[in-house]
Specification:
By secondary structure, the protein is an alpha/beta fold. The protein is about 45% helix and about 10% strand. The chain has 7 helices and 5 strands; from the N terminus they run αβαβαβααβαβα. Strand 4, helix 6 and strand 5 form a beta-alpha-beta unit. Helix 1 runs parallel beside helix 2 and helix 5 packs parallel to helix 6. About 30% of the residues are buried.
Length: about 200
């Protein structure tokens, strides 16, 4: 559930963010969750983007020791502004990379939503390879329509293969965040096949 009044880019919401973070960490402990999805919030009018970025960095630096204490990683999501989230602050992978690099904590990473990244800039495989050490979680959905892989324009077989080839550099999860058109068991079976790269016997 998205909490209001606790974005990263507005310094007036910093206290609210830390408050909501502590509540979320309490809930996370009860279900042994190790990742928390974090949104930057929308751009603030009248404040330069560079200043908003600095505000986000400052807030996440304040959050980092709390996250580290609980053994939880915040994954900051990059969203598209063309279709779903007009006005959202963090919409390019390069800005997400700057954000996490400046925070400088292993407990603050990116949520690389493949659906959103495809809409905003494409270049998925190169962006994933260049930023894999910054990525703490993936969301999966095809474009257009945000349905399962194979319903749109993304070659998910190649995207998944590129991630698999990175080996131990990625230890996280990928969430199926889409509206499935196929029945559940058929959908999950197709996803298992799509993500299997075991070598076939000769």
């Amino acid at each position: 559930v998205e909490a209001r009044g606790c974005g990263l880019v507005n310094p007036r919401e910093r206290e609210g963010f830390i408050h909501e973070l502590n509540l979320s960490l309490e809930a996370a402990q009860k279900v042994d969750a190790k990742r928390l999805v974090v949104l930057t919030g929308n751009e603030v009018g009248g404040i330069p983007r560079s200043e908003q970025m600095t505000n986000a960095v400052t807030t996440l630096r304040a959050a980092a020791p709390i996250l580290e204490k609980h053994g939880v990683t915040a994954v900051v999501e990059i969203l598209n502004t063309y279709v779903d989230h007009a006005g959202y602050f963090l919409y390019y992978v390069r800005d997400g990379a700057e954000l996490t690099d400046r925070v400088g904590s292993p407990n603050v990473k990116l949520l690389f939503d493949i659906y959103h990244a495809q809409i905003m800039e494409g270049n998925l495989i190169s962006n994933i390879r260049a930023n894999i050490d910054r990525i703490g979680h993936f969301h999966i959905g095809d474009v257009p329509g945000r349905h399962e892989p194979g319903t749109g324009e993304i070659n998910y077989r190649n995207v998944f293969k590129a991630i698999a080839e990175l080996g131990d550099r990625y230890q996280g999860y990928a969430a199926l965040e889409y509206g499935a058109l196929a029945p559940l068991e058929q959908n999950l079976s197709a996803m298992r096949e799509l993500t299997s790269f075991a070598s076939k016997p000769q």
